[in-house]
Predict the 3D structure of the following.
Amino acid sequence: MAKTESSTIYLDHNGTTPVDPEVLMAMRPYLEEEFGNPSSSYPLGKRAKEGMDRAREEVASLIGSEPREVIFTSGGSESNNMVLKGLIDLKGPERFHIITSSVEHPAILEPAQFLTELGVRVTILPVDCFGLVDPADVRKAILPETILISIMLANNETGTLQPIGEISKVAREYGVAVHTDAAQAVGKIEVDVRELGVDLLTVAGHKLYGPKGIGALYIRKGKDITPLIHGAAQEGGLRAGTENVILAAGLGAACRVAKKRLRDDQENMETLRNRLQDHLFDEVEGLVLNGHPERRLPNTLSVSVPGLEGVQILEGLPRIMASTGAACHEKGVKLSHVLSAMGVPPAIGMGTLRFTVGRSNTGDQIEEAAGLIVGRLKRMKDGK
């Protein structure tokens, strides 16, 4: 595993992950001698095509699909945009209705807003205090014009896992397609498109120890979708442009590694996450846990410190790489839309810290991080 600076403790694996050594090895031949175009008929091109096919099989194996149901994209954002825009006939956008939730990634909410401006009707469902969508609300929101329900599998900020299987059952009663943005879930928990009952699913390479700039989109066999990029017939005619064999090989290898070590990784991440959580809640009074206490990713811990600001907390912890629950803008610091949707008051939410563990973390690191965080919080609470 690639190393971060020796003096730092990386706890932002939901932000991105280091590239796994096996991934680097899988990519290297296509950076050097195997530079062929997969569309070429001579041996160099055929070997590149074989590399693409192998990578597609590895992605499919991890998510339980057929290889031909997987297309490569530039990442989660492109996959999500392709889904939302690809199911809409832009000649008559007012005839379509989409359902999503208030805690989705901007890669869903922004395309949804774009479609709204074109005339598409979009329903944004609320969530409860844990960030969960109620399948009953999904049922109530379905209209005769509903073409798509897009609800994320795991939230990137809180780790909360949505009831996608239940939502899919509701959708099937009405013949509505279901998409789930699984960028944060794939590689951390078992993800099977058949068990979830989804028609479309998003994968992002850099969230599971693959390279940045590569993702995948599962499209159930028989599901029609309009390409986002038009041109030649690559990716089954759904994504034009010469394939990036280098990055596809990297994503395939990342999926192969993830499948091989999924159970061990999951157990290890949960152990480390719980150790950090126990330390913080045992030693700091008044902490608030964000997201579902059980139904969440095994690596994710989102906590709020009432009365303090997350940005200021992390400024005093230069050795710890983590995220906050607020974003800096020109007009100041704003509470994240996820916490706002969950009803977290700004006085609490502004003090949010997100710690996400991964393969690069050790028990000793967690102990050290806990000590640093606790010390920082106690000093701030004492006004020091």
In short: The chain has a mean pLDDT of 95. The CA atoms of residues 172 and 178 lie 9 Å apart. The chain has two domains: 9-17+261-381, 21-258.
